[in-house]
Batch of 2 targets.
Target 1
Amino acid sequence: MTDKTPAPSARNALDQSPLHQAMHEQMQDGSLFTRAIEHGQAYLRGISDRPVAPDAAAQAALAGLDGPLPEGPGEAEAILDQLAQLGGPATTAQVGGRFFGMVNGGLLPTALAARLLADTWDQNAVVHAVSPTNSRLEEVCQRWLIELLGLPQQTVAGFVSGTSMAIVCGLAAARWRLCQRLGCDINAAGLASAPRLRLITSRHAHSTVLKAVVLLGFGTDTIEYAEVDDQGRLRPETLPALDETCILILQAGNVNSGSFDPIRACCEAVRAAGAWVHIDGAFGLWAAACPNLAYLTDGLELAQSWSVDAHKTLNAPYDSGLSLCADPEAMVAALQNSGAYIPTSEHRDGMHFTPEMSRRTRAIDLWAALSFLGRSGVATLVEGLHTRARQFEAELKQAGFSVINDVVFNQVLLEIGDEAKTTAFVDHVKASGEAWIGPSRWFDRPVVRVSLCSWATTPADVTRAVAAFVTARDQG
Ligand SMILES: *Cc1c(COP(=O)(O)O)cnc(C)c1O
């Protein structure tokens, strides 16, 4: 600003405390936000040159952020600088090309930029009346997701924190509907007097499936397990006899091997019994959006509910999960919420589709991600992860490593040796700063997981990571 006259809102604030005046000035002046962006840009520019895992010194320096609760207001610029200087180096370089841990996705620049803008708006996604923008973008994203993933037309989407919560939603909707068919309103009756439902899943179900089972009060001891084949896929012939009290939880993307349960065969069996199928497709459901990989999710439209993350394979920012359900009445009933002060409308009121009432506007950055990529861009992104995984597999085999899974999607599993050798190998790779990987267990054998989840991984990144693996093996 050229003249020093305070902006109108700052002028009106002069009768408030110095703290309030400072905050009004920060809002009007904006240099604080520019500073944050500049720190972020410096971080992104240096991402390939820094260690992927933070070193011990960077972690020790976090002590500088610790201390007694400040007695009074601080200095905003100094706070940001301190955070950038001490916090930044102790992050893992997830947005770079050599983070292969968990199934953590990378970051789409357009989605990040949209999120920065949306965070500035600080909208509450609760109902249309408090954010028409979010409400409309939830509708748009829902329609686009139905099209991209090939879901039934009536499917509703809930924009939740991640797949953990989306599984809770799917199972809650399943419970409401199955109980309702059996003449019980589970919301009123509660578990104690409800008909007993049967939960069926495979021995390789993700730990968050078990968490949902616990949170919803079913109890893990009641789960009936189907067996899996050598890739971790549910074997349909080992399903128990099915009836109208069953909820089958399938997996599209085994967190270790990346394999997919045989969805069509299982769904057909369950439909014949009048039961419910939920598909946990946290990272794998996106295969459906990729013509060359869609065979993996064949039959997915026969399920009743699905859980998938936008923050994994799609590379949207955290926290962004999707609860999808082809039975809108059951989903809304299971998550029911109302209050005299809540202005609901004939528009889309997001809180009817999520466990949370107030939440951030996840649909905004998701909309930006899908707008940027388009149908072909999503397919290119997903297929790119598979291509890099195949490259990893080939170069590892070339270097004499033992790859023990069929690389059908984005996961590569390595056998290194016993527990101690495996741990030492992982530690060595991480300490080299060249890549981030994690250990796991596969049929009770210690293994190393390599997860290709970021668009930012280049062919050269894969080669560089394999070189670090060779060094870790030969020096270990
Ligand atoms: C990551 C993951 C989950 C949990 O998802 P969050 O987004 O971390 O809550 C569930 N199932 C599978 C297969 C996963 O990979």
Note: The two ends are 60 Å apart (CA to CA).
Target 2
Amino acid sequence: MRPTSAIVLAFAASTLAQDQIPLVDKLKGWFSQATAAVSSAVPSAPAPVEASRAKVAESVQHPLTLENWKDTLTVDPTVSAPATQDWLVFVTGANATCYGFCGNATKAWNTSLPFLAAKSNAPKFAVVDCDAEPILCNSWSVGPPSLYYFQIPKPLADQSAPAATVRYQTLNRTSTTVDTFKALVLDGGFDSIEPYEGLFHPFNGQLQEYQLAVPFAYVMWAFSKMPSWLPMILISFVSRSFM
Ligand SMILES: *[C@@H]1O[C@H](CO)[C@@H](O)[C@H](O)[C@H]1NC(C)=O
Ligand SMILES: *[C@@H]1O[C@H](CO)[C@@H](O)[C@H](O)[C@H]1NC(C)=O
Ligand SMILES: *[C@@H]1O[C@H](CO)[C@@H](O)[C@H](O)[C@H]1NC(C)=O
Ligand SMILES: *[C@@H]1O[C@H](CO)[C@@H](O)[C@H](O)[C@H]1NC(C)=O
């Protein structure tokens, strides 16, 4: 048995054992406990707590890269029951893309993961580190910290795939806690967010359709790497050479 399923089963079993309280209420209870634990633990959580939190997160979520994301965000072909697979993708970063301000949100996400995974019909989880994957983040035009919610339909018998629904929520760098994730995922917060249909839709936005998302991402990335005076100089050279 994979560690992921073991963790989820352990959670599920501990709820089943405890009489008739509905699972979702139970989860909410855990969340408030986790909130309390996090807010008291944040200033200086002992190292083993940090380590085990990171371990749980590691075993539950799939790290996405520019190369693997399309193959990862799919419907497990061996599962016939759900016609749609939900994926939650946490977008994070460190010094380069989040200016070092994503730590609290990432910690809250890591802490929330086991609880979200114990939900019935739990989504699958993935994480993108925009520091390591700037091109992927630029091609989706997404910045950390944020949470993407994909509903990916199973391909039909003729292999054509109905369109995936995507919703995303930008997260506040300072005020994101486990409650934020609880509200979005367990309390139906995502249901009130309009699906995103624009240019940067990771599956069927126009940029993906015309294979322009990745080239565009490289251009944006190059601009972000440029010192701010360089475009000015370039523009003045170009305009001068036209004179
Ligand atoms: C969150 O979990 C990941 C493993 O997926 C780990 O690499 C990271 O250090 C953890 N971050 C925090 C702030 O706990
Ligand atoms: C991020 O910046 C902080 C402070 O500037 C520094 O202590 C830390 O080592 C940096 N982390 C990385 C991964 O570069
Ligand atoms: C992270 O949380 C701590 C404790 O709540 C707070 O002091 C700190 O300012 C927060 N960091 C950021 C970047 O919001
Ligand atoms: C993030 O939360 C802080 C504290 O709650 C608030 O002051 C700030 O305006 C929020 N930022 C954004 C972009 O919503």
Note: The pocket of 2-acetamido-2-deoxy-beta-D-glucopyranose (ligand 3) is lined by residues 42-43, 101, 104, 173-174 (CB under 6 Å).
